[in-house]
């Protein structure tokens, strides 16, 4: 649960400061890591 929450925070930070493509890459990584 803690890891998932940290992942969401990380994704939100990237979504706010990076391109959509980078965000999708992080989301894909999060799913693969999960």
From TrEMBL:
It comes from the Bacteria. This is Fimbrial protein.
